[in-house]
Amino acid sequence: MTNAVIKCILSRSAAKYYDPAATLSDEQIRELVRIGTSAPTSFHLQNWRFIAVRTPEAKAKLSPIAWNQPAITDAAVTFIICGQLADSSVVPDRLAPLVEAGVMPAEMVQEWEIPARGLYKECPQRQRDEAVRSGTFGAAAMIYAARSLGLGSTPMIGFDAEAVHREFGLAEDELPVMLLAVGAERPGNWAQKPRRPVTDVLYLV
Question: Which of 7, 147, 169, 198 has the most Cβ atoms closer than 10 angstroms to its Cβ?
Fold first, then answer.
């Protein structure tokens, strides 16, 4: 029998129709983000930020710069998933709680910081790639968490990135990776669409 986690993953589909009268509390929104931040990041950078667009005023500001997609106004919340350029200088601060909790020996911090510096410091493209990777990992965790809670979700890349950056006050080192609408679904959404056969995409070597 398929376990609950796998069943959740295999039953997920991007929602098109939301109940515009349904809301999520700020506590529910915080819990989705808390789960999202359990996703992996390189060197434990946790290089992400989540802007929860949930008020009518904020939705009205986002909608026209995101192709007026109905999910933005109908879903309870649309998260702007922000990835932050990978910055090796924050590694000691990010690892400090691990040292304090006795998870990591203090002398190991430098062993992580040095290779992180070599990987990212002079590599702007790699810094950006890591921002996109981290934001995507966090969003994916939230997508499946939402599904497990009986909520629909819709990841969206249809938006004016420069306008989102400007209108929602993203920092210079942040980029909007995607929008993620979450809310109670209404009837009419499709089940998960058939995927390409594993034999077409898996290479055993």
Answer: 147
User: What is the reported pTM?
Assistant: 0.96
C-alpha angle 165/21/177, rounded to 5°?
20
Q: Indicate the average pLDDT of the chain.
A: 97
Alpha carbons 61 and 58: distance in angstroms, whole number: 5
Give CA 138 to chain center in angstroms: 4
Tell me, yes or no, whether 48 lies in a domain: yes
Specify the DSSP class assigned to residue 182: E
Per-residue pLDDT, 1: 56
Domain hosting 171: range is 20-183
Say which residue the tokens 């200088």 belong to: 89
Give the closest residue to 182 by CA, choosing from 12, 4, 3, 7: 12
Nearest to 33 by CA among 133, 199, 180: 180
pLDDT digits (tens, 9 = 90+) for 91-137: 999 999 999 999 999 999 999 999 999 999 999 999 999 999 999 99
Is residue 201 situated within a structural domain?
Answer: no
State how far the Cα of 9 lies from the Cα of 148, in Å rounded to an integer: 9
Give the total number of structural domains in the chain: 1
Asked, for residue 196, whether it belongs to a domain, the answer is: no
CB 34 within 8 A of CB 201: no
- Tell whether 120 is covered by a domain: yes
